[in-house]
Amino acid sequence: MKGELHVHLNGLISPRIIQEVLVDERVDLPEGFDPHRDLVHRSACDTLASYLAPWQVLQRIPVKKENLQRMVDSAFERLAANNVRFVELRSSILYLAMLQNCSVTEAFERLIECTEISANKYSVRRALIMTVTRGDYSSVQLNTLMNAYKTLGQPQDIVGLDLAGDEEISFPADLPELFKEAKQQYGLGVTIHAGETGRPENIRIAVEKFDADRIGHGTAAGKNPWLMELLSERDICVEVCPISNRLTGAVSASDAHPLQQFREHGVPFVICSDNPAIHEKGLDDDYAAALTEGVSLQELRAQYEVAQRYSFIKDFV
Ligand SMILES: [Zn+2]
Question: Which domain holds residue 200?
């Protein structure tokens, strides 16, 4: 049994389904884009930008509601095949609203409904995390999401907030305070993609300014003992995605994975898959990769309890 705390909805959908939806929705492919070749990564990418190539088309679908259901179903099929019993699924609801030409509130409702149907079908418990993208409009995005969240009466299926996107660019000065407000007022969990591109200060900012409960990737912490201490002291869990980290170059081929340092310094970690369909893998494979990166079998066996402990879902029995 497994729990999955860091996975993006559009990184979970089988390439076959993506291709079918691209055809069905008559999406114009970017020049030179070959879906058979460019929707998956089998070896390390030269840059993070090349890792993100599949999103050139992923960000254009689904336009139709029935295709959202089809894609969500594909995601849950993969989760179930990897024995995932609960998942915190993250996605950009604002993108969905734009694509489906509906209000943000309606996009929320559609996502909640579609994921509920597939979660029941595959017997996977699911909760949703709202992703905000780094950049000038992060605060506008968050306010829009929170307004829809409040309009819908704070659905209990929505458990957290995520900040994702290019770590090299800045965000509005009021963003950390808005994350903290959402956490304090509504009990939403906060996870921040930080330290994936070698910027340790982004991890410190995530902890000290955003009051993050968990850190996505956090690979830059490995070489910074002071950060290890900060994470360990505050009991902040790192969402470690071993396959993704190698494919994006977050951990280079010549370096050991910082998992070793996390273990040594008592930093809690949970093994996750990030974008398994893009890797043509599943969480099972990330568990196997974690073993080769130095995690013990005993630690892997404890992962289900660890994922429950750090999950934003609170009512495990
Ligand atoms: Zn991620």
Answer: 2-310
On whether residue 316 sits in a domain, the answer given is: no
Per-residue pLDDT of 151-188, as tens digits, reads 999 999 999 999 999 999 999 999 999 999 999 999 99
> Ligand 1 centroid vs 206 CA: distance in angstroms?
15
Catalytic residues: 196, 217
User: Is residue 85 situated within a structural domain?
Assistant: yes
* C-alpha 231 – ligand 1 centre gap (Å): 19
Cα(258) to ligand 1 centroid in Å equals 17
Number of domains in the chain: 1
Q: What is the CATH number of the domain that holds 269?
A: 3.20.20.140
Helix axes 65-81, 15-24, angle to 10 degrees: 170
